Amino acid sequence: MTSTSKFALFFTVYAALAASSTAFAQNTGKVECTILENASAASGTIELKGSDGELISGSCGGPVSAPAGKYSVELRLDGALDHPKKTSTVEVKSGETSQLKADFSTGILQIQAQEGERRVAAMATVYRGSSRVGSLGMGVTAHLSTGSYDVVVRYRSKEKRFSGVTLSAQQKRVLNAAF
User: Fold this and answer.
1) How much is the average pLDDT of 101-111?
2) 3-state class (DSSP) for residue 67
3) Confidence of residue 12 (pLDDT cuts 50, 70, 90)
4) Residue 11: CB partners within 8 Å, gap ≥ 6?
5) How far apart (Å, rounded) are the C-alpha atoms in residues 147 and 133?
6) Alpha carbons 151 and 160: distance in angstroms, whole number
């Protein structure tokens, strides 16, 4: 193959890729999401699911590019023990940017434990209904969606149960387990 024909082949491939890239760019739009926690800026993620199973994900706070089409959307709040999400749909239009916003209502739960007069290192398991949400060590605070929870605190072979622990927006609840 001569250098002229190599150049012609290279140019043909380059032109095809450039045209393909331009066609893709012309048939895409963007989605920007804003995540709030109790009406204040927070960190979160976005996940777009197309009807063909296509999955596009990214961080909120910057634009996420996607081919034009309709998507099911999940917006998630970072850092909350119960991993809350909000779902919606969005239509991505070519050359346009769609805006999405989700405000998550959370409270803070903290567990303390003591045996007699001294603090002890116990573990707490948090449940919502029959589903396990997560675990907490003593003194650790956790952000949780507002609502009602059951908490089981274990220290060695002993346990204390707290039923119907409710959290409202921006509330801090401290549970004290005495063994």
Assistant:
1) 98
2) strand
3) very low
4) none
5) 13
6) 8
Is the pLDDT reported for residue 14 higher than 60? no
pLDDT digits (tens, 9 = 90+) for 50-92: 988 889 999 999 999 999 999 999 999 999 999 999 999 999 9
Structure tokens at 42: 């927070």
Q: Position 16: which residue type?
A: A
d(CA 38, CA 174): 19
* CA dist 19 → 13, 26, 67, 90, 129 (Å): 10, 10, 16, 28, 54
Measure the N-to-C terminal CA separation of the chain; round to a whole number of Å.
Answer: 85
Contacts with 91 (C-beta within 8 Å, 6 or more apart), sequence order: 69, 70, 71, 98
Whole-angstrom distance, CA of residue 113 vs CA of residue 43: 31
Tokens of 7: 């150049």
125 and 135 in contact (C-beta within 8 Å)?
yes
Whole-angstrom distance, CA of residue 54 vs CA of residue 75? 17
Place of tokens 């089409």: 69
For residue 2, report the phi and psi dihedrals to the nearest 5 degrees.
-75, 165
d(CA 21, CA 150): 53
